[in-house]
Design goal:
A six-stranded mixed β-sheet has the order 2-10-9-4-5-6, with no helix packed on it. Strands 1-3-8-7 form a four-stranded antiparallel β-sheet, with no helix packed on it. It has strands at residues 3-7, 10-12, 18-25, 34-39, 46-51, 58-60, 68-73, 78-83, 92-98, 111-115. It has no helices and ten strands.
């Protein structure tokens, strides 16, 4: 059974930083690219960053390039998202999922990020 536990969100002022974590289980973590998504209030879920299974290659949506860094620890089945210089438009619930999803119908509970002064 696939499971994701996202954590690390919170309330932060513009310009601040947060580090998100997502610990996965129920599939062979090291075999899959992992992706962070976010969903802002009233908007559809969008992908934010992707990391390859083992070679460290990463991709980012243009709006977060230079501010966010995705990383992973395959020994801990965990993917991270380091977020710096946060902006109000980064507000949303952040989720992780492998690429492609192991279970297309399952998403974790996510972690809320709120950027506000």
């Amino acid at each position: 059974q696939v499971q994701f536990v996202e954590s690390g969100g919170g309330l932060v002022q513009p310009g601040g930083s947060l580090r998100l974590s997502c610990t996965a289980s129920g599939f062979t973590f090291s075999s899959y690219p992992m992706r962070w998504y976010r969903q802002a209030p009233g908007k559809i879920r969008e992908w934010v960053a992707t990391i390859a299974p083992t070679d460290g290659r990463t991709h980012y949506v243009d709006s977060v390039k230079g501010r966010f860094t995705i990383s992973r620890d395959n020994a801990k089945n965990t993917v991270y998202l380091e977020m710096n210089d946060l902006k109000p438009e980064d507000t949303g619930v952040y989720y992780c999922n492998p690429v492609p999803p192991v279970d297309y119908d399952y998403w974790g509970q996510g972690t809320q990020v709120t950027v506000s002064s």
